[in-house]
Design brief:
Elements (H helix, E strand, L loop, with lengths): L2 H25 L1 H10 L5 H24 L4 H22 L17 H18 L10 H19 L7 H5 L6 H9 L10 E6 L4 H16 L7 E6 L4 H8 L6 E4 L1 H7 L6 E5 L3 E5 L6 H9 L2
Parallel strand pairs: 1-2, 2-3
Antiparallel strand pairs: 1-4, 4-5
Length: about 300
């Protein structure tokens, strides 16, 4: 096998890695959104957009590497890998060992492992940058089609939640009579001026995502954890849930499953902003960062 064939084969491997990376991120896009938001550089809604831009960008670069028609794609990919590697080095310096979501939740890599992976890819790209590229007709048209395709896929497969906030409000229902009983009980509820109450179940994927999202919002806006209350259905797995979601500082209580689901009209997660009365309710999909911030900051 001559050198050009080997270089083309490496292009295919790198292209496939980028495509797989984008697919795995898309498959666990909720976790990826929260990861970006948890960096505390961007708003929740901006994090939704950035997650889809990154996924679309990776998919596009992977496809273009497979098509092998632009040398500039090699340099663009190199620049992005170097930027991501610098970001990961910063994570390593800060002692972060969590999943960096390079392959979503499918393949768990910590920042150090991802840096090794990126260095291998960078070495491969540096070696293949001087290689043969195909000459085809309608190159620009083909590129434009795949560009649109790549960025459309994540938005069609999983539209950003903020597009449907109002629609999701109809699902954030609760039992008013049961709530009145719950808030009147000194045993079940420690009264505060304002409380963000999250009704959760330990076996629910979206309950875990809700916990992570609420805590990320509280950390970004310096909301005292005492303003938050987790209400779990009775379970032996609450500590495991709190460890996994890194929410051990959040106060919590347990309720019998029947009582909790009576409160929430049978559905979890349910997030309630409570100030003497129910001010607003959310399900996971329409958690509104600005409304939560305003709720805590306004008198």
């Amino acid at each position: 096998m001559n050198t050009n064939k080997i270089k083309f084969f490496i292009k295919i491997i790198i292209g496939v890695i980028f495509i797989i990376s984008s697919i795995f991120k898309l498959n666990s896009i909720d976790d990826f959104e929260i990861y970006i938001f948890g960096l505390q550089y961007f708003s929740l809604n901006t994090s939704f957009v950035l997650a889809r831009i990154i996924i679309g960008g990776e998919l596009f670069l992977g496809i273009m590497l497979l098509l092998n028609i632009y040398k500039s794609i090699i340099y663009i990919t190199l620049c992005l890998l170097i930027l991501f590697t610098l970001f990961l080095f910063n994570k390593i310096i800060l002692g972060n060992t969590e999943n960096c979501h390079c392959f979503g939740e499918t393949i768990i890599l910590n920042p150090f492992q991802s840096v090794i992976k990126n260095i291998i890819l960078i070495i491969g790209l540096l070696w293949i940058k001087k290689s043969n590229f195909f000459t085809i007709k309608f190159k620009k048209n083909i590129t434009a089609i795949f560009l649109l395709f790549s960025f459309a896929i994540p938005n069609i497969a999983s539209p950003p939640d903020f597009l449907y906030y109002q629609e999701y409000e109809h699902y954030a229902t609760y039992n008013k009579e049961a709530f009145a009983e719950f808030f009147a009980s000194e045993i079940n509820y420690k009264k505060k001026d304002k409380t963000i109450i999250c009704f959760l179940s330990t076996g629910c994927k979206y309950c875990k995502l809700t916990a992570k999202k609420i805590v990320s919002i509280s950390e970004k806006h310096n909301i005292n954890k005492d303003y938050i209350l987790f209400v779990f259905s009775e379970s032996n797995n609450i500590e495991e849930f709190r460890n996994e979601t890194k929410t051990k500082e959040i106060p919590f209580i347990q309720l019998p499953k029947k009582q909790l689901f009576r409160l929430t009209d049978g559905g979890v997660p349910l997030i309630v902003l409570h100030k003497n009365e129910v001010v607003h309710t959310f399900i996971y999909r329409n958690i509104d960062e600005q409304k939560i911030k305003d709720f805590i900051s306004n008198n």
